[in-house]
Amino acid sequence: MNWIFLLLLSLFTPGFNTAHTNNWAVIVDASRYWFNYRHVANALSIYYSVKRLGIPDSHIILMLSDDMACNPRNPTSAQIFNNRDRHVQIYPDDVEVDYRDSEVTVENFFRVLTDRLPEGTPRSKRLMSDENSNILVYLTGHGGDGFLKFQDTEEMNAMELSDVFQQMHEKKRYNELLFMIDTCQAGSMVLPIKSPNIIGVGSSTVGQDSLSHHGDHEIGVYVIDRWTYYTLDFLEKIRPNSQAKLKELFRVYSTADIRSTPQYSNLKLFNSRSIDKILITDFFGSVRQTVLFNEGTVEEALAQRTVGEEALFLVPNNLELVSQLPF
Questions:
Q1: How many CB atoms lie within 10 A of CB 203?
Q2: What does the angle CA 50 – CA 53 – CA 56 come to, to the nearest 5 degrees?
Q3: By three-state DSSP, how is residue 41 classified?
Q4: Contact 104, 67 (CB under 8 A)
Q5: What is the spatial distance between Cα 76 and Cα 88, in angstroms, rounded to a whole number?
Q6: Do residues 178 and 193 touch, judged by C-beta distance below 8 A?
Q7: Model confidence over 108-146: pLDDT tens digits?
């Protein structure tokens, strides 16, 4: 008997093994208060980009410390913009904020990364990653030498964050991880990270501020930071099937443009993948190509996969076959 299988394959560089089968993003705005509007816009800009490139809300953990959209000072009620031209509304009706306001704490952030959440925590609030997951972790807010402020009431220490990443490695919570942070002295949060297969990039080196880009006179505050602005400008040119590499993104971080010196760590992953080989969509996207199999068994279809491919088979009218699938 013939079966129809729907095989979803990751779109990776031909002949190169990325070894990951799913993508996740953890996006955090750690600041509150109206004058920090730009930090919410920073986080939502990254959220908007990864959704556009294919990562679904079910694989995004979004943490926003303040509700700028409904702030009484907001002249564009229920909307948030990252540009004075307001050509993109980055707080759409279908935005899914998983942690908001007082829920955005250092403890909850660490619990999400390590999956040490209380029993009964909804799946939407959990990072359900594994050893096959590529994870983007993006943070924005006010920081200093070796710390990032949360809610203006507590601080996350750089060594604590490094330890949490090491726990993620030991618990096989990721395949590769890209850590990005936009804050003053961001390099102090990046350099202590020594866990395998983590690339870190910060908007500024130790002793430097991370500056805002421009403001909106009607809104009355700055609407985006410089480093995230140029990150977003690059990502807006990327399509889901793009072959652009991570090195191309890092090249746009001109000191003259962002007015600070970006700080990097581990530009070559422990599995020998370097930034000139890593696709942007390996972290910012989750593209799947559909291939239709008209004949064969589950075993035959699986045998046709190459290394690095992710497969999901849909077998109509035969639930018994579903139990044979190794997923």
A1: 32
A2: 65
A3: helix
A4: no
A5: 13
A6: no
A7: 999 999 999 999 999 999 999 999 999 999 999 999 999
What is the distance between the alpha carbons of residues 16 and 23, in angstroms, rounded to a whole number? 17
**Distant-in-sequence, close-in-space partners of 105: CB < 8 Å, separation ≥ 6:** 150, 151, 154
Phi-psi region of 178 (alpha: psi -120 to 50; beta: other; left: phi over 0): beta
CB-facing half-sphere around the CA of 213: CA atoms within 13 A: 23
CB 26 within 8 A of CB 136: yes
Instruction: List active site positions.
Output: 142, 184
Q: Which of 170-179, 275-284, 293-302 has the lowest mean pLDDT?
A: 293-302
pLDDT tens for residues 275-295?
A: 999 999 999 998 554 455 445
Q: How far apart are CA 325 and CA 322, in angstroms?
A: 6
Q: Are 94 and 80 in contact (CB under 8 A)?
A: no
Mean pLDDT for 187-192 is 96
- The number of C-alpha atoms within 13 Å of 122 and in the hemisphere containing its C-beta is 6
